[in-house]
Amino acid sequence: QVQLVESGGGLVQAGDSLRLSCAASVTITSRYAMAWFRQAPGKEREFVAAVATSDNNTGYGDAVKGRFTVSRDDAKNTAYLQMNNLIPEDSAVYYCAAQFTGYRTSILRSRSQYTYWGQGTQVTVSS
């Protein structure tokens, strides 16, 4: 069983930055693709960003391209989401997700493709 623990959320002002972390309870090197999703009140959970196991290939949702950066530190079994130039529309609960893929370059963008989820961390951006 894989456990994921997110941290780093909080209340910030528009234009500020935050970095979220997701610590995994297992070795993720060459095994687990990692991703971030978010869910605002009354909305569906949406894809934010993902990083594959191979060559650190990354993918982003349209709403965050150019502002957010996803990365992974396999030595620490941790994924990160650097969020810059935050806007109020970024306010949501952010969830980390992981899926065993082996060594692959493909980016998984659908909720249904991920088996393991963290408990979520709240990000609130005030205007």
Fold and architecture overview:
It is built from no helices and 11 strands. The N and C termini lie far apart (40 Å). A hairpin with a 6-residue loop joins strand 4 (32-39) and strand 5 (46-51). The chain has 127 residues and is mainly β. Strands 2, 4, 5, 6, 9, 10 and 11 form a 7-stranded mixed β-sheet that branches. A 4-stranded antiparallel β-sheet has the order 1-3-8-7, with no helix packed on it.
Can I get a quick summary?
The protein has 127 residues and is mainly β. Helices cover 0% and strands 48% of the residues. The protein starts with a strand and ends with a strand.
Query: What percent strand?
Result: over 45%
Shape: globular
User: Between the first and last Cα atoms, what is the distance in angstroms?
Assistant: 40 Å
Q: Report the major sheet.
A: 7 strands, mixed
What's the tally of helices? 0
How many E-type strands?
A: 11
Q: Please tell me how large the radius of gyration is.
A: 13 Å
Mean pLDDT: 96
Q: Structural class of the secondary structure composition?
A: mainly beta
Order of helices and strands: EEEEEEEEEEE
The poorly predicted ranges are none
Helix content range of the residues, please? under 10%
Name a few traits of the molecule.
4-stranded antiparallel β-sheet; mainly beta; 127 residues; 7-stranded mixed β-sheet
Q: How does the SSE layout of this entry go?
A:
Layout lengths: L3 E4 L2 E4 L4 E7 L7 E8 L6 E6 L6 E3 L7 E6 L4 E6 L8 E9 L15 E2 L3 E6 L1
Parallel strand pairs: 2-11
Antiparallel strand pairs: 1-3, 3-8, 4-5, 4-9, 5-6, 7-8, 9-10, 9-11
